[in-house]
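Async update (no meeting this week)

Hi team, since we skipped the sync, here's where things stand on the single-chain job. The sequence we agreed to prioritize is pasted below, unchanged from the tracker. I ran it this morning and attached the output directly underneath so nobody has to dig for it. Comments welcome in thread, and please keep replies under the output.
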Amino acid sequence: MTTRDGARHSPDSGGGIGGGGPPVDHKPKIHGFASQSIEHSGDKWKRPLNRNGTGSTHVRTFQGKLTAQGLEFLDRHINEWLEAHPEAEVKFSTTQIGEVATATGKEQVVVVQIWV
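Output:
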């Protein structure tokens, strides 16, 4: 669209005839989990961890894609978490495999729970 001053605007750009509103901020609305700062509750635990090999007192859940790269990422993420929490003694772990709906269909995922 061409305005009276000769500037060219797309119909949805907000400029031009009748489009004298404030400029539109075009930040992406979809973000991956890695791009968000996620605060985990493990940093605020009030109950002490059992370090004597008896019962678990907390659980930490990890989720990743069921692909070679996804499993590699999951391994790295779990190991980094364990390194950052040396006071955590792993009692046992569980895994689940399933599908989650995505914008492009379904995706295979693996969920790992580490009981400490």
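Quick observations from my side:
Strands lie at 59-65, 92-102, 105-115.
Helices lie at 68-84.
Reply here if anything looks off.
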